[in-house]
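Co-fold these.
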Amino acid sequence: MSRNIWALLSSDFSHGSTSIFAPAGTPAHSIFSLSLLVLGITTAIFLIVAGLLLFAVIRYRHRASDANASQEPPQIYGSTQIELSWTVIPVLIVVLLFLATTRIILSTQNAPKPAAALDVTIVGHQYWWEFSYPKLGIVTANELHIPVSDPKHPTPTYLTMTSADTDHSFWVPRLAGKMDLIPNQINTMWLDPQTPGLYLGQCAQYCGIQHAKMLLRVYADSPADFAAWVARQQKPANNDATLDQQAVAGRAVFQHSVCISCHTVAGTVATGRFGPDLTHLASRDTIASGSLPNTPANLRAFIDNPAAFKPGALMPAMHLNQHDLDAVTAYLSTLK
Amino acid sequence: MNEAAVIPQTTPWVLPSRGVVGMACLIIAESAIFTIFVVAYLYYLGKDITGPTPRQVLDLPIFTSICLLSSSLSVHLAVSALHNAKRGLCSLWLAVTVLLGSIFLGGTAHEWYKLIVHDGLTLQTNLFGTTFYSLVGLHATHVLVGLIMLSLALIFSLNGSMTSKHTGRLEVLSLYWHFVDAVWVVVFTVVYVLGR
Amino acid sequence: MATHTSAPAPSTTYTPPRRLVLDVLHDWVTTVDHKKLGLMYIGYALIFLVIAGFQALLMRVQLSIPNNTFVSPQTFNSLFTMHGTTMVFFVGMPILFGFGNYLVPLMIGARDMAFPRLNAFSFWISAFGGFLLYFSYFGASGLYGAGNAPDVGWFAYAPLTARVFSPGHSTDYWTLAILLSGISSIGTALNIVATTLCMRCPGMKLSRMPLLVWLYLVTSSLVFVTISPLTAAQIMLMLDRYAGSHFFDTQAGGSAVLWMHFFWIFGHPEVYILVLPAFAFANEIIPVFSRKAIFGYPAMVAASVGIGFISLSVWAHHMFTVGLGPGANTFFVLATMVISVPTGIKLFNWLATLWGGKIHFTASMMFAIGFLFQFLIAGLTGIMLSVAPFDWQLGSSYFVVAHFHYVLVGAILFMIFSAFYYWYPKMSGRMLSERLGKWHFWIFLIGFHLTFDFMHVPGLLGMPRRIYTYEADRGWMIWNMIVSSGAVFQAAGTLLFVYNMVWSYFKGPIAGPDPWDAWTLEWSTPSPPPEYNFAVIPTVDSRRPLWDIKHPDDPDSRYE
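Predicted complex below.
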């Protein structure tokens, strides 16, 4: 049983999709190394002090069978030397830990920004993430694509973050520590994943009823994949010629409903800013901020009644009839 | 049962007065509340997006401040008078204190009238409005409570219920009043001097 | 010096007539006696403990499997808000002030607190606050209909608490209930300080006070400078919500971070307000059951005062991820690490008290020993969290939840249980069942460790706090199931404890004045003490007056 727990523990730690002990980027690596030092020191302290406590509790227990069981033990009121030593030693440990910690704080928060860094602006909303790439002219939501960074020629991604409503927090454990998104304040952090892949995370500051379903998906793409993604995202939405009849009907429904007051589809009349940008909705793996796979069935169900899946989400139920619902779903599925 | 030796009481066992200690504790707690409001005031100085700024609308309330700070002296004289069993004098000084305090409150009301009606500054206008009215208002509320208590003391002094053996209690009340005045020194400095 | 009033022989000839229930009730409702008020604080805190514990059980059921639908998101969010708020303000504070109320006058040889009517007022206003908080379940109207308890988290971050994000009145119930609790706490703290400074019996210089009294003095002093910032912040919040002010209104240039500063300037010292009384109990109980004087009394006093002061400077370690900048982060790392030095000193002094002693494993002592191990671990995970970069990963995750529950349950609650077993005989005149006490200890210990040891793991695996459910692909399920299973044991242990208290009141063995052969003044009165506490106010000349009487050949007064 205990072997199973340990096996479980170690495999979860090293392979868990959001384990802080499976770092894949420099900030997470620095924290991981520091954490090993801290864990080492605290474990040593634990073993020594708990060992002494255990010893005392066993060795000095009252045994009725003892010769002098009824006498009080010698009363010791204190000892200056002992008390001095257990003051000085902890102070030294504190100094050591403090210096090690300060080094990592400065190396992470004051890291100089290379010229090749990518800039992404993040705005937190109740309950979704708005990602925009100002120099690339891209606005997207919930799924963040960033280039893999080669340690020899670093191309980190610098995140500039704020919130449109309540406090949120951006946490992708395998890549870095978390940083809060606070309204009326700009915070910054940086990521530099060194292995391509998908890194998961979620909002880590209670922001309201659906805080639990404000998930994060960070796609670290190879340079070629990233360039291709950028190119696709920079295009406006699909034009008329390629849409089938149902999708065209769906677009008409979309553009005549209140959808456009919250959502943007680049190149059309939909310019709402309150909800996620849908220009390339069909290129995403998930909807509802990472919590539902992006399939036509899910999309349809979500549009029909978001509260059935995410009660408290700020998107109202659209109350479209079945025909319109099918059409809109078909239209949105063309927004690759 | 073997009784331990009783210590020969060469020095009398004297402990501080409960009233003074209690009031000191209350003053510490209230100071902490005021400190937070002062911190908020300082934090938001200069951060207004709109609306009147302190420099534009605040005048130095010199006269009312002198009144309030003098009332500390008058209440001290009231306590001395009571200690010396001079009830009439005590009533007089208490009345002076209440008068001076009331002038202060009246002055505050007058200032606020001008700010609200002529300058359009309310709690809702901007950050300055929010922090100004809450800080000065909190202080004014404390002045009001103090005036009520002092008026009660005045009544008790006039009708003979309060005598020299109650000096300790009047002194505790006067400590509260001195605190209110000390807070005003801080508020005056932060709002009317530093802030403008 | 007569410190032991000879109790009259149990009367066989005269039994006072049974009083009417209404008379008894009237007596309790109008009492200003510190002992009755103390018992009322403790009693009503226990009721809230059971309620808040039940709320925790519901949360653990919901979280045991991913994508569970046991409770709705709205209900879950109210549950963690109410659980935290109740436990801090209506369980922790009242129970600790209840013990303080009961014990401080007795331990310093006084007949009551300095301001008995203020004492009663403090109790009733706190009780009203608790009632108000729970009335929200019926009275508050929120976004989702009537009957909405607060759901903004116990620290109610702005601007989530603004009218626009929290419409209705649920947040207002939170604010008002805590405002009332704060007024109560300030009143009680004022009483404790005034009593301690002004009503000690002759001979009891400050350096001869029991350490419990010292710790309550430090705790109460902390209350004045701690609760007030929260009171101020809540006044500001109410002004924002109803008078249109902009203290935390980010749309008008206000700052969300300012609320955090004000809240945590309260919030961090608050946890020291909760833990210092637990230290107070340890300082009395561990020596008695080790049969040795506390090791290093002056250092204990200095460490306690030091902890009190330093605790006022560490608050922003709750804000390492907020973007304060490297300078501020570094300062708060240092301050937080520094506080571990006096805290460690206390732990080592307790170890040294045990060392060379003759340890009696009563139920009370077993809980105290549990406290020592668990407080050590809690302190160490605290050191981990003080390392800001590590906190950037672990903050706002289940690692933090595990850490603070380790302190609140593993250290504080264990010490409260220990205090119950130790002082129940004095308060009721009867002993609690040692057998049931040991069952309580072992069952609760197993539950505590199942829940809170394993709770660290989801935090390390990336699970944030305050989520009503989680994805199945994160690998958190097995750990959550283990955590939830421990809750059942803790519930069972607590129920056993309540049963023990009720049963023992009627059937427990008579305790007598001094069942533990202890050394401080409360053990010189009958159990329970008469309303006036001492027939003759005692005079003392050492830290352990009863030790001096029992060991006239080797009195403590020789060693001071």
